[in-house]
Backbone:
């Protein structure tokens, strides 16, 4: 049971959501946005967060679209992971989403919730990073489009929320692979997770689980695309050039993560370079 | 805009097993709590409370959902099915006939999830069945028999066209 009370609002438009946020915030209330709500509910139950007001974004049409508009795929923030998987409009995103949580939970978890998670893994961002997606943010100051990487580590400004993700159609159906290793079971947080695709004969890859935030690195990609090197050399040099220190925590030691990363990069090369 | 506030309990309508119920809830009440404590449907079990075990699974518009991860206020306008609404289902009968029950605590959640699986994927293969069954934990580890029950219903449905 959630041990505190809150007001629940389900606005019909972004304007109404912002208005509600502003009026509640001015009353000194702690306000949170909510799409799938799995994290809000579990964190609240576990005493990790509180809220005086919850604004459910599922009633906002902008947040529930999943459609092609011109040269962009538009994904509403309240689209569930299973809706993404079943539509399979962006196969790399479908494959990555399929490895997040369990099937039943994916009926509730939304892409917006995953991207705005307080946990660091945010695996749905990996396909967005390599596909050069942009995200649409709405807040009291208006609407703004940002590169998806701004969500990797960023905390949005007070009162703002994610409404949509826009992915260039030209990046939806490129050769890809999505790989993940967990500590033990198939369902779990990643020791290492990566999403990669090939565009114009160059590998693009983004990582989660290695450090505090998901990331994509130009230096790592340059090394992985250096065809003057052998596979083994490319991978060991790429690992040496990671722009971050590798985590050492309860899921895996630093050494094991590094070892696992090497295996996943080898698998990635095999899959991607074996494709036409 | 739908609103539910904290100062008083709010009365909301819930459609459960084809019957409409007006229930008094806090905004923070989960669907699981409301089903059990307000409507008296105790088939959905409280266990992990964290969406990890599936003992609280119900169907929301035909989709399996951890009712511990859903607020009751979110379920307004949705069609909810609990194990009490599947009394005469083929999946329930298959669990009995295939001995897919041991202590029984996880059974309602499993039956609902498996029922949704065969409805959504009448040609489900082993991979699909395992993917769906990962959502539920059986503390007695009766997974083999549970999988057999699913396969039994899939086969029966195919035979019956």
Residues:
């Amino acid at each position: 049971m959630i041990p505190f009370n809150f007001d629940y609002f389900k606005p019909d438009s972004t304007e109404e959501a912002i208005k509600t946020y502003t009026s509640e915030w001015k009353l000194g209330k702690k306000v949170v946005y909510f799409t799938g709500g799995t994290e809000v509910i579990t964190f609240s139950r576990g005493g990790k967060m509180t809220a005086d007001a919850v604004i459910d974004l599922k009633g906002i049409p902008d947040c529930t679209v999943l459609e092609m508009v011109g040269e962009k795929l538009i994904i509403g923030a309240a689209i569930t992971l299973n809706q993404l998987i079943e539509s399979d409009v962006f196969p790399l995103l479908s494959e990555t989403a399929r490895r997040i949580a369990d099937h039943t939970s994916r009926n509730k978890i939304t892409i917006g919730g995953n991207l705005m998670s307080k946990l660091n893994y945010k695996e749905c961002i990996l396909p967005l990073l390599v596909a050069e997606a942009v995200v649409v943010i709405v807040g009291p100051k208006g609407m703004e489009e940002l590169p998806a990487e701004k969500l990797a580590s960023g905390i949005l400004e007070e009162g703002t929320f994610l409404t949509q993700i826009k992915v260039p159609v030209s990046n939806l159906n490129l050769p890809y692979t999505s790989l993940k290793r967990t500590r033990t079971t198939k369902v779990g947080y990643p020791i290492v997770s990566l999403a990669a695709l090939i565009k114009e004969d160059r590998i693009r890859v983004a990582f989660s689980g290695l450090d505090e935030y998901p990331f994509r690195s130009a230096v790592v990609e340059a090394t992985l695309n250096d065809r003057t090197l052998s596979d083994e050399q490319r991978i060991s040099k790429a690992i040496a050039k990671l722009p971050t220190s590798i985590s050492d925590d309860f899921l895996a030691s630093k050494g094991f993560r590094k070892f696992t990363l090497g295996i996943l990069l080898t698998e990635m090369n095999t899959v991607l370079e074996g494709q036409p | 805009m739908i609103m539910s506030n904290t100062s008083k309990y709010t009365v909301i309508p819930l459609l459960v097993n084809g019957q409409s119920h007006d229930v008094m809830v806090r905004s923070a009440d989960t669907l699981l709590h409301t089903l059990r404590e307000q409507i008296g449907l105790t088939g959905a079990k409280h266990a992990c409370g964290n969406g990890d075990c599936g003992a609280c699974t119900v169907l929301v518009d035909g989709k399996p959902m951890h009712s511990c991860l859903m607020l009751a206020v979110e379920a307004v306008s949705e069609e909810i099915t609990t194990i009490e609404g599947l009394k005469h289902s083929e999946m329930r009968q298959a669990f009995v006939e295939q001995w897919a029950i041991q202590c029984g605590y996880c059974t309602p959640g499993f039956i609902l999830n498996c029922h949704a699986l065969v409805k959504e994927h009448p040609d489900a293969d082993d991979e699909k069945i395992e993917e769906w069954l990962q959502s539920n934990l059986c503390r007695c580890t009766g997974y083999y028999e549970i999988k057999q029950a699913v396969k039994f219903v899939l086969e029966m449905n195919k035979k019956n066209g």
